[in-house]
Amino acid sequence: MNSADIQKKDSQYIANTYKRFPVSLVEGKGATAYDAEGREYVDFTSGIGVNALGYADTGWTKAVADQAGRLQHVSNLYSTMPDVEVAEKLCEYTGFSKVFFGNSGAEANEGALKIARKYGIEKHGEKCNTVITLKNSFHGRTITTLSATGQDVFHQFFFPFTEGFKFVEAGNIDELHDAIDDTVCGIMLELIQGEGGVVPVDQAFVTEVARICEEKDLVFVVDEIQTGISRTGTFLCYEQFGVEPDVVSLAKGLGGGLPIGAVMMNQKTEDVLGFGQHGSTFGGNPVSCAGAKYVLDQVMKPEFLEEVNKKAAYMKEKLEAIPQIEFTTGLGLMMGAELQNGLVAGEVAGKCAQEGLLVLTAKTRLRFLPPLTITYDEIDRGMEILERVLKG
Predict the structure, then answer these.
(1) What pLDDT sits at residue 187?
(2) How confident is the model at residue 32, as a pLDDT?
(3) What distance in Å separates the CA atoms of residue 392 and residue 49, rounded to the nearest whole number?
(4) How far apart are CA 149 and CA 142, in angstroms?
(5) d(CA 86, CA 51)
(6) Number of Cβ within a 10 Å radius of residue 106
(7) Which terminus of the chain is more solvent-facing, meaning fewer CB atoms within 10 Å of its CB: N or C?
């Protein structure tokens, strides 16, 4: 099928829940993808932060294929080597105690919320079940993670939404203190609000959240779905804020392209969930975990992280040299670019796709989540297209 055929069948048979660009990808290598006609696209999106090692990384492909040829799935009534290896690697590197595996970021956040609520109820009574999250946040598309998301635009159509959430403005310490009462069991936040515009949260605010959680015995949850797996220049973003969460949720880049989510728990929270209180049929899938292990073997290397930070500085300098970009936000290879008045992010992204560059948007900004292995040549080629589009 050519691209037009693919898009026609897409429209005919797939639920219309995505506003797709008229691009149909069939293969890729590194940060470069190709459509059915062989047209080239420089990819600054990595599948919204998923393809951490780019398309078709040779080592990752072999690890996944080898595992698929041995054992593609097994019930969680039994143990397997791949998920044990990934769990051990995560715990040994980060200092967390236990890991639960699911299939997505929303699932990971659901698990984190269940931990916070059960901890609060067991430690402080049945009324202690409210979680504070941030305005402008995004935590997923299940009913409960939509309820935890601090954007009114997502609180439509699917009533009744899950109760038990309070929202405070990121950076507003007074509002945070006012929200704390004896019903609050935890505080959950993204350190960079990705869908909210690639907006980093203020250091003083994060420090105060951590202090309050320790003082009042609340569960401190950090959503690292988009910021984790070396995306922001450290393996986990919270390392740059000098705090120690009780629970961290992971997904996206962890699997390198296969579905996987993870909830990491420290000593405070590791035993909160007991037998039968949480589960996932496909969680810890051996093939996904084989891919995840290979990803972790790469992105945890100091020299890999050093390269991420070098490429991030190079890309930031290139972006800020474009006159039509007012300023950039973010950390590492998670970047936002505010455009001059008159330029609409969605329209720019569409024109970029037409010219052979794939970019994302977040509110009024362009958003960039390139593969962590992107080359300087691919950065240059993408920037040339972006600059040409912005010049009109």
Answers:
(1) 99
(2) 98
(3) 28
(4) 10
(5) 18
(6) 22
(7) C
Q: How many H helices and E strands in the chain?
A: 12, 17
Could you say which DSSP state residue 253 is in?
G
Identify the segments of the chain with pLDDT beneath 70: none
- Structure tokens belonging to residue 63: 């690890």
Residue at token pair 């997505």: 104
Name the residue among 180, 191, 195 with its Cα closest to residue 149. Answer: 195
Contact present, 316 and 323 (Cβ < 8 Å): no
pLDDT for res 116: 98
Spacing of C-alpha 20 from chain mean position: 20
Angle at 314 between CA 310 and CA 319, to 5 degrees: 145
- Return the pLDDT at 315: 98
Distance CA 269, CA 333 (A): 31
Q: Is the dihedral of CA 133, 86, 332, 367 positive or negative?
A: negative
Strand, coil or helix: what is 151? coil
What was the pLDDT predicted at 144?
98
Q: What is the DSSP string of 323-380?
A: TTEEEEEEETTEEEEEEPTT--HHHHHHHHHHHTEE-EEETTEEEE---TT--HHHHH
131/127 Cα distance (integer angstroms): 12
Q: What is the DSSP letter of 3?
A: H
Residue 47 has φ and ψ, to the nearest 5°, of: 65, 40
Cα gap 268→291, rounded to integer Å: 29
- Taking a C-beta distance cutoff of 8 angstroms, is the pair 142, 294 a contact? no
Per-position DSSP letters for 180-239, written without gaps between them: -STTEEEEEE-SEETTTTSEEPPHHHHHHHHHHHHHHT-EEEEE-TTTTTTTTSSSSGGG
pLDDT at 36: 96
Nearest Cα neighbor of 193 from 235, 232, 136 is 136
Q: What is the rounded CA–CA span in Å between residue 22 and residue 179?
A: 45
Q: Tokens 């909160």 identify what position?
A: 272
pLDDT of residue 10: 97
Residue type, 249: S
| Token pair for 167 | 């929202």
pLDDT at 348: 98
If one counts every other C-beta atom within 10 angstroms of the C-beta of residue 341, the result is 6
Residue 217 zone, left/alpha/beta (φ > 0; ψ -120 to 50; rest): left
Q: What is the pLDDT of residues 33-91, one digit of tens each?
A: 999 999 999 999 999 999 999 999 999 999 999 999 999 999 999 999 999 999 999 99
